Amino acid sequence: MNTLKFISSNLYATGSTQKPLPPYIFILNAAKVEQFPKPMYKQLLILLSLSVKLVQSADDVTVGGNRQAYRALCGIVALAEGGVNVPPEPAITSDDYDFVQQLYLTSSSDERQKMFYTNDTPKKVHNTADEAGQGKKGYEEYCADWKEAAEQLLTTPKPPRLEATGISKLTPAQRKPAHSKIAKLAGKAIQIKKQIDGLDAGKVNRTSATAKLKGAVYGENAATADSTTRVTAFGAEPESTARETVCVAGSGNQMVKTVASALECLCVK
Predict the structure, then answer these.
(1) pLDDT value of position 92
(2) Strand pairing partners for 117?
């Protein structure tokens, strides 16, 4: 960690004359150092101080041969340090969904519309597909939504939004092509509703998302750059293993499994 101490002292106290131990870390463009927030720059320096003591090559970070990949990884580090802003779950109402199902039923053929209702006076809506004589046709999962829409169509006056479309004034021949389009829309609406109903509210929040991201950057049980070591970055001490083996992406130990390990391999590519 002597390298880290040397570079940090030169960033914050330029009078330092302490000489670092190899491997040396150089700044690609010293003029741009001040553009980094100092806490953020410190995090990067700590990560770069990790060393697997490998022979340098023409693509090392010291000559900037891999600056684009390096910049991309640093962006992930910045994201982890800045925290993840998880947007709030949108307020979802059933109005639009109900409207689509009302359109679907109203545009259906007269024969199909009749199957939703009993012959009673006043009319009532069948509770199940079996009651409507439509059992074992795959309608079971849609029945509850269709029942609700059918009940809304029995109200007087009809839903204003539906009446505004003028769909109830169409002839059976005119409704047929409209229904083919509306049926596809209604089918998609049902699938989207099923996905929304299956969401686990509150499963992802700022704290949990940031923790996941920091684990990917620094390694398991290393929540900050200060706590990062070669073991947390690579999963195991990589010093005695050839670079060709260590610097390969993978989930196993002694592999590039974190951003910290990827940065180290880039620095001594």
Answers:
(1) 65
(2) 125
Q: State the chain's maximal CA–CA distance in angstroms.
A: 98
* Contact by Cβ (8 Å): 214, 80: yes
Residue with tokens 């990884």: 73
Find residue 125's DSSP bridge partners.
Answer: 117
- What pLDDT sits at residue 106? 93
DSSP 70-110: HHHHHHHHHHHHH---PPPPPP--SHHHHHHHHHHHHHS-H
What's the pLDDT score for residue 87?
73
Q: What would you report as the CA-atom Rg of the chain, rounded to the nearest whole angstrom?
A: 32
Whole-number pLDDT of residue 3 = 32
Which regions of the chain are under pLDDT 70?
Answer: 1-65, 89-92, 200-202, 268-269
pLDDT of residue 24: 34
Residue 185's pLDDT is: 92
Rounded Cα–Cα distance for residues 72 and 154 (Å): 59
Beta-carbon contacts of 178 under 8 Å, excluding residues fewer than 6 positions away, are 107, 167, 170
Q: Which two tokens stand for residue 26?
A: 């150089």
DSSP the chain: -HHHHHHHHHHH-TT--PPPPSSP---S-GGGGGGS-HHHHHHHHHHHT--------TTSGGGTTTHHHHHHHHHHHHHHHH---PPPPPP--SHHHHHHHHHHHHHS-HHHHHTTB-SSSS--B-SSTTTTT-TTSS-HHHHHHHHHHHHHHTSSSPPHHHHHHTGGGS-HHHHHHHHHHHHHHHHHHHHHHHHHHT--TTSS-HHHHHHHHHHHHH-TT--SGGG--HHHHHSS--TTS-HHHHSSB-SSSSSB-SHHHHHHHHHT-
Return the domain boundaries, the chain. 2-87+205-267, 95-197
